[in-house]
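Thread title: Can someone regenerate the structure for this chain?

I was given the following input by a collaborator and told the matching structure tokens would be attached. They weren't. Posting the sequence so someone can regenerate them.
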Amino acid sequence: MRHIVCGVLLIISLASNAENNLLYQFNIKQKTLSHALVDFALITDSNIVFDSTKFDQLVSTEVVGLYGIEQALEVLLSRHSLTFRIDNQKSSLTIYVVAANVSEQDPDAVAMELSKVVVRGYVPGDWVYKTPNSDAVVTKEQLDKIPPLHAADLFSEVTGVFVAEDRSSPGLSVNIRGMQDFGRVNMTLDGARQNYQQSGHGANGQAYIDPALIRQVDIKKGPSSRANGAGALGGVVNFTTINADDLMDNDEYWGGRINLTKGIAPDPNGYRLSGSAALGYQSDSFDLMAAYSQKDLDDYDVGRNGGFTGDPVSDKKAQGATAKFTQQDQDSKLFKARYHFDDIRYLAINYNEFNAFTSSDSRNPNNDENTTDIVSRNLIAEYSSPDINARISRTLTRSDQEIFPTSLYSRFDLRYQIETTGATLELKNEFNFASGLLTWYSGGEYFIDETDPKAQQFNFRAAGDFTNSFSGPTPEGKRALGSVFNELQYEYRDWLKVHLGLRYDHYRLQGKTHFDMGLDPDDGVSRIWRAYVVDRDKGAWLPTLSFGYDLIEGLQLFAGYAKGWRPPAITETLLYGQHVGNSGPPVTPNPNLEPEQSNNFEVGLNLYWPDVFRSGDIIKTKAAFYKNKVDDYMINAAIYLPSFGGIGVPGESVKYYATTGFVNLDKPLTFSGFELKSEYDNAWFYSKLNYTYTDLDFQPSYDPLPNGGSDTFRQFLINKLNIAEAMILVQPPAHKTTLDIGTRLLQQRWVMGIRSRYYSANKLAGGPQNELRFRSSKIYDLYSSYQITKDLIVRLTLENATDQLYATPVTLSSSHSGPGRTFLLTVTADF
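Best answer:
Regenerated them for you:
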């Protein structure tokens, strides 16, 4: 029986009364088979159904001259073993083109397989229901449906994904299945790593993304044996920006788009205005695109109903209050240029710049506001073809801050900066066998992070020099990570997929740090610092294995295993100094940190069933159970160092000084859970359910003397002190649910719907005395859009329609209250 590659079915529909025996003038040059078939459909006014995920990688044969439909198809497809069937209906002509690898002695099986192909409209993102893993995607349609108030809103409907958001900052740190911060999740923008890290009271590892310039977000959950997987045991999130061809049709040379969003009465809620403009040009050999986006938001008000603290008095006081310092003043620029060697190979240059201004409370008597200017620049060069993808990139992210004086310290000018230079190469080779297709991906990647903090103190006070308090926790250093990888993907006939991968990661971290030895016993005021040079490296082999088995047509079972690995970050290894204002213990480095190692398991299913209740409807479902066990998990905790003074035990002369720093847990940290994504669509009605269950097994056990000490004192600490008190661990809520129900009317030009979001009560930080518990929340959003013309669409959205006071999940910052009811008007015009 012939092998039919499962994938996304793409239909190009142009109704006509074409006849098979007519001759057509063709001028289709050699290009990708998908593009060639699109041209064929336009010339013949036909519907063509084919597997776009496969045909994007195939090359057509040139067709020039007068041909009948069958003759032209035979020439166009002559490079490959393909079968087609023509259905000439009364009002339209439909052509089915299917990739096949069978013996010519089995024509009945070919006919049987062709009969299974159903004419269906292409829906972006449907490929996730046909891949044997838990990958996810956020499409442009989802991005446009409800304009995100913050970049974190991009992931509201993604299973297994949370965001450590700080509404006073435009950055975001993505959490996948409990893993976040310090590079556990690799966030990339057009393939360029976003590795900015800054120690503080919030997330450590942020990407600055402008949703207005994003066309798609791809999410890989867990370790990967492909490009961008180095050092990322939590997963990979790639934000793809818009291209020139997003702004125009294939037959147009130039085009553009303007998008404006404004808060309107009765509830604008601080949303002044955001807008973007993009202009593109394309020809046979090159295309250009430039875009600009700006957002100007004031402080928003939180909801006026309900609460999340569990204390009625506190909740009543917070209801309707203005969330200070949540204003957003930001702009973005994007420029892209691509030179096309032919239809399947191109060389591209991409420049992206993000700028933002924020403020925060200085907590001084004058009510001064600390200010922060953020800039993130990405320069990317890329070569792409069906067989080779190569990319080099350089990213600079810098935060310039002005800190006003308080009673404890003087005014500071600060700069936190990281430069990331990276290169990626991925090769693809295909081998056709009688029983199936073997695809071999191989390549390597390398990147280096270099941090460069600066802290300048003005008007020194008697309390002393606090420069190390600002620059020490985000220290200067260098970390390089290199990786080589291979992955074999074998598709056996039409029912089995096997993926086998192996990668080798190796890192090197260099820098200079300082140990705080306590107060000088001679004067009792000065601190004694001991310099320490760090130069560490290590590597690991990381296998992956997954299976996909098509039990019946449209039902796929899958299972997978992957080993993950993450080396220590610069901030985890080298941080030092004192908490600002001399409050709390000093922070200390830990050059002896071991890399984290994870074992990730998942089993699940994909369901893709058309024509269930009526012709043209479809049910799509992805469900998965997972269990991820992490050994040597790195966490901030209490560390005791030998010093000139401090505490000890009877009979020993050595004293120890209490500090905080990063340690490896000596017992596994385990996240497990269940994810369900299910959709029903019958063209005029749709519903989308996303559910996530997350469970955490956390045992706060570690060595409080990582740099050495007596076993007697170590046992004293473990038995007498609650050493888990200083630990901070982000824990997602156990339950997250979104339900989106809507309808399409007036030939699908008018869309309206309602979305509900539910988060169960969650623990944000531990240990026992420091933990914060937020009550469960349920938020409703209403949305509607109307396509006035082909090039003009108007949208209305009412977010948090019931004006609930709620807390955003996995948020450590003080800006954890979500916005109250917000009414937005959006107008999008293409030209």
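The first helix runs from residue 33 to 44.
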